[in-house]
Write a structure and sequence with these properties.
This protein has about 90 residues and is of the alpha+beta class. It has two domains: about 40 residues, 3-Layer(aba) Sandwich (YefM-like fold); about 35 residues. The chain is about 55% helix and about 15% strand. A three-stranded mixed beta sheet has the order 1-2-3, covered by helices on one side.
């Protein structure tokens, strides 16, 4: 579960928050006027999330291409104007 911290509190203790991020690798939710505005993550967690997102996007694209090939084999084709039509 993410820890919650206000912008003003973060300003006063940014060094401690960064230390906590490195040690515990738990995200911090940054709030302003009692509303969430950002999430703070340690860099390794962020990079891991970005890598996984790219993998998922690639898997999705490969699945869409495979489905398209199957449809083409069965003679079920359709005209598309942009990649967004594939969704």
């Amino acid at each position: 579960m993410a820890k919650i911290i206000s912008i003003s509190t973060l300003r006063q203790g940014v060094t401690q928050v960064v230390k906590d991020l490195r040690e515990h690798r738990q995200p911090w939710t940054l709030i302003q006027r009692s509303r969430p505005v950002a999430v703070l993550l340690d860099y390794e967690t962020f990079e891991s999330m970005q890598t996984r997102l790219r993998e998922l996007e690639e898997e999705h694209l490969l699945r869409v291409v495979a489905e398209g090939r199957e449809e083409h084999k069965r003679g079920k084709t359709r005209k598309i104007n942009s990649l967004s039509d594939l969704r």
